[in-house]
Records
---
Amino acid sequence: MNTPAAQDSPEAADREAGTLLAEAEKLYYTRPAQTLHLADQALALSAALPLATLAAARRVRGLGLSFLGRHAEALDELQAARGLVPSGELQLECQVLRALAIACDEAGVLDAALEWGSRSAEIARTLGDPVQLAGTLLSIGVVLSKGGDPEAGLVQYREALALYERAGDAARSVHVLNNMGINCKNLGRHEEALQHLRQAIEIDAGQPEPAGGCVIARLNMVEPLLALARRDEARAALAEVVPRAQAAGYPNAECFALVLQGELQAADGDDAGACESLERAVRIALERGSRQHVARAHKALWALHKKAGRFEAALAQHEAFHQAERAQFNEDSDRKLRALQVQYDVARARHDAAMARLESARLAEQTRTDPLTGVANRRQLDERLRDEYARAARHGHALAVAMIDIDDFKRINDRHGHAAGDAVLREVATLLRAHCRDIDLVARYGGEEFCVVFVEASANDALRACEAMRAAVEAHDWSAVAPELQRVTLSTGLAEREEADGRQALVAAADARLYEAKRSGKNRVVPGAQPAA
Ligand SMILES: Nc1nc2c(ncn2[C@@H]2O[C@H](COP(=O)(O)OP(=O)(O)OP(=O)(O)O)[C@@H](O)[C@H]2O)c(=O)[nH]1
């Protein structure tokens, strides 16, 4: 719906679209449906939005679709955005490529995510835009880590961190440091992991409004601390994490913290406390739909019950552990299947689009060619002649037109049959084409009449070509068309641009000379007024 501002002027619509898109961009991660709605609103503001704004709107729309889980649509939308980016708008191109990387990552198509991410990073480097580059490197790092290469992920994170630090972006620095800590933990480099996570906590604490970053950092410190046998510190970190995760509303973090707490209590010999923590973890996981750590909780509970001789409870936990593992496995395979489905959908959409393009090219061709002979039809002739005439008049170029008619064609039809007549038309069209240049146009004018437009050709050149056509048709062996058909001849009238006022007059002049050629005995070319010798 057009707002009053948008109706005022295209500039006002563009400005308003910019405001809506800036708002939409902030929400794609948390409220993708709202992002989609705002992008649609921006697109509806005016039919005359600049290309760059259209590209930006479709980019944001694609991100919204991606986080709504509509992966194939998202990738299509982002490809469309890419096609709309005006050349030279590198900043926008960089953003669209990064959005493609993010959407591919969401869809689980990690290799494509890496490809788009690298291309986006390349442009960001050319632009010398540190924040844009850092964002792209962070996305690449996440993809590499997810793809099972935490070491390569770390390389990207390090560069992103340096850029964010230089730009003074504390919130994003905390985010990168957390990711670095997790990667080091997964690589077994516990000291290094603790160093990154501590730094994240420090930066976060220095913020006017500390975010949840420290919860994640503290939580991720526990395992490295345990691995380094620093139990007291692990215990202290956990004691802080559980209430903070609860307060921040991070069920995954709370659940994981309780699992770690349970394991720690079990190792300390506090079996009752351990059971309590682990059961709480399972409850939260079930209540809040956060299943990530539930199998680990059941496993620890199973061991505790078995140790205490509560075999029935141990059996139940054992069963629950396997169920949770199966669910996780199914979820993973579902995700992989979905990624394959997305890849298939995207490939099919591309194939369909290519087929549609081919079909429309075929239809366009069909409306421009004569189906019997394959040469141009009247419509194409009219268009080409209009363009060539205007061009020749503008530049003072020569242009000639020949009207060509098959002599006594009615008799050919009558004696040899309509099919033979058709074959003669096809053969004549082929011979005409063979005796002119690619830039000239041979068209079927109607019935047994053809028209040839000789582009940038003098009257003499055109006359030579028409003579060659006439001679070729006369000398042609027609026995393959009809055994009794001995001879086919052409009558031709020729006119050049300079003697006619307008393209219709040019065709009329050639037609008048064709009539003259017929009257004066056929099988001849009647040239323009006075061709040079
Ligand atoms: N086989 C076939 N015949 C066609 C086609 N289009 C037109 N004709 C025939 O072409 C013939 C043209 O005959 P006329 O106009 O009398 O001309 P003509 O016999 O060539 O005589 P001149 O022009 O004086 O040499 C007619 O019999 C039409 O039916 C076509 O697509 N296929």
---
Amino acid sequence: MQRQLGIRERSAPMASSRPVARFWEWGRNIVCVGRNYAEHAKEMGSALPAQPLFFLKPSSAYVREGSPILRPYYCSNLHHEVELGVVMGKRAQAVSQEAAMEHVAGYALCLDMTARDTQEECKKKGLPWTLAKGFSTSCPVSDFVPKNRIPDPHKLKIWLKVNGKLRQEGETSSMIFSIPYLISYISEIVTLEEGDLILTGSPKGVGSLEVNDEIEAGISDVLSMRFKVAQQIRRA
Ligand SMILES: O=C(O)/C=C/C(=O)CC(=O)C(=O)O
Ligand SMILES: [Mg+2]
């Protein structure tokens, strides 16, 4: 009879043959950090976190260029949040800050699409943010950028335009909690697997989107991506 395995003993997965460059196709976890830029916390009227605040999106939240971002039927204030994504290259369970970057495969540009009116309601009622942050298409994602193309992820400029007008421009050096700190902190609570994605939080300038708006977002000197907003049609 097979004996029961403890959590630590289960942490030696078979080597994956899947290319991490297509992580969004794997059905991997999406971990989102919130209030990681002081000016964004301020514009939301929120206190600065003493420790990272994080929440999850389902893997069905991924959407790629060529497909629209859908405004949920229950939302009348859809917001953009441009964020640097960190793609895990190997399992991380309670890793130290010093070892954290060895677990990173690369980066991606992500949008943490937010039904802001729903989030306000959830905050008032003390409810989880799933309806506000986890709906289908709430995680537009760029191509994968291998780690060797970005020597220092804390020296990047990320930006977002709506219909050609600049809305967000942030320096990743302004994050409250660094990437090694986030990986170390999160991995002690949620084991991170190969292909998992961490959204590192939004800089200031989040704002409303209308149906048919065109979003363009980028990491300066690295990549850019475009998405269009459409309305979710309620079928049920
Ligand atoms: O503080 C709030 O009301 C809202 C915060 C967020 O939506 C958190 C994020 O997703 C973020 O900071 O990126
Ligand atoms: Mg966010």
